[in-house]
## 1
Amino acid sequence: MKTKLKMIYWESEKFWIGKLLDHPEIMTQGETLAELEENMKEAYTLMTMDDVPPKHKIKELILSV
């Protein structure tokens, strides 16, 4: 399964820093932009899928609010 995520990022004095717009609680850094992207993918996986078994199912829920 592929997921598209939007990341806001910027360069500080030492690191590239980023956070996910849809999950602002997920934030990380890297010495390069490429490292930031890899760290972000890993952080997203750890925060959202780490405790989910490999044989899982996905279902879309519709809420009326």
## 2
Amino acid sequence: MATATSTPSSTITWKLDPAHSAAEFKVRHMMISNVKGSFSGLTGTLTEHTVDSSLSTIEAAVPLASISTGDPQRDGHLKSADFFDADKYPEMTFKSTRVEKKGAEEYAVTGDLTIHGVTKPVTFAVEGPTAPGKDPWGNTRIGISATAKINRKDFGLNWNAALETGGFLVGEDVQISIEAQFIKG
């Protein structure tokens, strides 16, 4: 049986546009509500295989110092050694290992997510890519939306504080959402 191979005409390289992309998260706080935050300055490359989507790949990096939760004190704590230790581990990264088509413009993208020096496999549910469109400057763009849930303790983010009423200050499950635009070329 022949296997599909990549040729220059069967792949398109897309560069992530950091000005129009963001990674967001939410985590339970005090067991009563979710706290949300975001990261900016994402970088990455999507290599789209136009004949066989399972051969497509994506790599991305998120600068942890860009964290914003709307509270500078909390942002500082999240950058500290209690959580991300952003001085020692300045980025979280993702590198795909498998792309599986789930439906029209729906994929399961599995890859190695590295946070805090720990790498674990994570699967993102991806919507898109959208149909290519031209921007006012002549660039061709596509967009994707991706979500995943991780347990922060799997990545060595173990800090917590017990609550007087029982339970813990910070939940373990973290929902990750990514909205990304890519520019052809």
## 3
Amino acid sequence: MSINFFCQNVFFSLKKKSVVKTWILSAIQKEKKKAGEVFFIFCNDKFLLSLNKKFLKHNTFTDIITFQYPSEKLSAEIFISIPRVRENAKKFKVSFEDELHRVMIHGILHLCGYKDKTPTHKKKMRKREDFYLKLIFISR
């Protein structure tokens, strides 16, 4: 089991990688899942848009796309647009780091089975995101 971080077409360095890894693994365990290999790939808008078009047939910018591997363990590639996260942080009046952590845990929660297509599902997802965000804030 491992959490890995990479960059694609963007210059970015994640702060406190070991804290984030521990936090992600803890969330997976709390959701009663077994962690496999999770790859976070930080990228730019253009790269993520190309994935969105190619694999999801959506011609829109997004902050995150998650591709789950077929496995008994929670394994995936999670692509995150750093420019989208920066823009959303300004829009929602939160720090870049806080918004990045929310997007990261959002991807993990999707892998754990949480949905966000209906208002009820969105509310449940947001509540769980907030729960985990409180845990990483304690660690910082």
